[in-house]
Amino acid sequence: MQNQVETLTIGGLAKAAGVNVETIRYYQRRGILPEPERPYGSIRRYGTAEVARLTFVKTAKRLGFSLGEIAELLRLEDGTHCQEASTLAEHKLADVQEKIAGLRRIERTLAELVQACHEREGSITCPLIASLHEGSISGERWLPRN
Q1: 21-30 and 10-17 helices, crossing angle to 10°
Q2: Which is more confident, 122 or 112?
């Protein structure tokens, strides 16, 4: 008797993996998820391998990896390329740390501007709005790099 999970339609696969059917099709077009053969006169069937791959992709996306990076990780998944995978993760970690530093600068600047707004005491102009118009918020050092 064949296991029910080995005979999933694309809709069943989407439900099992917690993604949309269009997401599966998109991943297939990108080469991230293989498209199974369609038996003559029948529909494509998916199994546990595809559910596992979609779980891998979802987890990697939550860690901030792009689909291109995920495709590269999938290429390295045979277990013999740990150093290469580690290098990819190190680059991602550096990107995340840079974003966090940028967000901390934004947080400090906004806190200063909010404080200035609370201390304005009768000022006609709002310090926050004035700073935004002038483009002079802490020398713009808070802006994240893209």
Answers
A1: 100
A2: 112
Query: Which residue blocks in the chain are alpha helix, DSSP H?
Result: 10-17, 21-30, 48-62, 67-75, 82-118, 127-134
Task: Report, in angstroms and rounded to the nearest whole number, the Rg of the chain calculated over CA atoms.
Answer: 24
Phi-psi domain of 98 (left: phi exceeds 0; alpha: psi -120 through 50; beta: other):
alpha
- How confident is the model over 11-49, as pLDDT tens digits? 999 999 999 999 999 999 999 999 988 877 788 899 999
- Compute the distance between CA of residue 16 and CA of residue 111 in angstroms, rounded to an integer: 44
Cβ proximity of 113 and 128 under 8 Å: yes
Question: Which amino acid is residue 139, in one-letter code?
Answer: G
The model's pTM: 0.72
- Tokens found for residue 17: 């993996």
